[in-house]
Design goal:
By secondary structure, this protein is an alpha+beta fold. The protein has 4 domains: 88 residues, conserved putative lor/sdh protein from methanococcus maripaludis s2 fold, CATH 2.40.420; 88 residues, Efflux pump adaptor protein, beta barrel domain (Elongation Factor Tu (Ef-tu), domain 3, Beta Barrel), CATH 2.40.30.170; 60 residues, RNA polymerase II/Efflux pump adaptor protein, barrel-sandwich hybrid domain (OB fold (Dihydrolipoamide Acetyltransferase, E2P), Beta Barrel); 74 residues, Helix Hairpins (Orthogonal Bundle). It contains 4 helices and 20 strands. Strand 10 and strand 11 form a beta hairpin. Helix 2 runs antiparallel to helix 3.
Length: 360
């Protein structure tokens, strides 16, 4: 080894020895300055909460219908599109009334014929009435004249009814929206031949939504009309009210249909898939307010305040969310104090100045 390499090696060993000596020394005993943060706190406790059974449900419009025509004919003036909002009374489509107009004309021709026959029958009635009064004709002939006159009157009345029926069919040629809503589907287009009972449009009133779900007999018996339940979708909870309970179970699934009304301010939309939480029993659980739960780097936790009022971040395992708060499954014990507000300003090791107690 030459002199230059030996010099470098000795210098490196000297630096290493110096670093190790420096690391072996303890840092000076300086008290760390703690930041004081005002925040509300609460003492955790075990409480009685309802246990839930979750069942799937679907959001639907409370009022929805399929619109068709009572007439046979070609569709025209169908200008609405899927998803379009329409108002009550708005024209949706028309049916070509040519066939109905022909029926009206035929009925009018029949009425004219019946009225002409009635005129002849009335003339005979008046003439033979005088002859019968003078006993110039037998009673049997007089009865025949009266019968013919009554029959002519009946034919006129029937022809008039035929006109009224044919004319009333004309109003079915124009189909209007029975209520305000959204066109959810077009089954046919302009030029298609419509038949009675065949759907042409589907209309739904999305201003009033409900949730439909199927529950078992046990859950069905635990529900009541007007009862409040929670509907969950995409992490959001919406309060709902039991609207209808169908007592007859489905023959295939043996489930009972339950309908829940949603509040008008709900952000749910028709067709959304939701989860319905049906309360079934009571149990003990440790709950904290939703405002006390944090998520830092994907790790849920709470700030626990020790006896010296120092906040320590502790990981917890949260459970179900309820209107009363969030259930803590592990990581926290009853009787411990947690920070329940102003969490954005709190860091691990801060000194907490309690601003008031929060009751969970």
């Amino acid at each position: 080894m030459n002199t230059w390499k030996r010099t470098v090696l000795i210098a490196a060993l000297a630096c290493s020895a110096t670093g190790l000596a420096a690391c072996s020394k303890s840092p000076p005993d300086a008290r760390q300055v703690q930041r004081q943060v005002p925040a509300p706190v609460m003492q955790t406790e075990s409480r009685s909460v309802a246990a839930f059974a979750r069942v799937p449900g679907t959001v639907t419009a409370r009022q929805q219908i399929q619109l068709g025509s009572r007439l046979s004919g070609y569709i025209r003036a169908l200008r609405v599109r899927d998803g379009q909002a329409v108002k009550a009374g708005q024209l949706l489509f028309e049916i070509d009334p040519t066939a109905v107009l022909g029926q009206v004309q035929q009925a009018r021709a029949g009425l004219a014929e019946a009225e002409s026959a009635l005129t002849d029958a009335r003339s005979n009635y008046d003439r033979f009435k005088v002859l019968y009064t003078q006993q110039a004709i037998p009673e049997k002939q007089w009865d025949q004249v009266k019968s013919a006159y009554a029959m002519a009157q009946a034919r006129v009345a029937a022809a008039q009814g035929g006109i009224s029926t044919a004319q009333s069919q004309l109003r079915y040629a124009r189909v209007t929206a029975p209520f305000s809503g959204i066109i959810t589907r077009k089954f046919m287009q302009n030029g298609d031949l419509a038949s009675p009972g065949q759907p042409i449009l589907a209309l739904a009133d999305i201003s009033r939504l409900e949730v439909q779900c199927s529950v078992s007999g046990t859950l069905y018996r635990s529900l009541q009309i007007g009862q409040k339940v929670v509907v969950s979708a995409d992490g959001n909870s919406v309060p709902a009210t039991v609207l209808d309970l169908v007592g007859a179970a489905d023959a295939m699934t043996h489930g009972h249909m339950v309908k829940l009304s949603l509040p008008a301010a709900s952000t749910l939309q028709a067709g959304d898939y939701v989860s319905v939480e049906v309360p079934v029993t009571q149990r003990r659980a440790l709950m904290v307010p939703a405002a006390a739960l944090l998520d830092r780097a994907g790790i849920p936790g709470v700030f626990v305040v020790d006896a010296q009022d120092i906040a320590r971040y502790r990981m917890v395992r949260p459970g179900q969310r309820t209107p009363e708060g969030v259930e803590i499954l592990s990581g926290l014990s009853a009787g411990e104090t947690v920070v329940a507000g102003n969490l954005a300003a709190v860091n691990n090791g801060d000194h907490i100045a309690p601003t008031g107690a929060v009751h969970g």
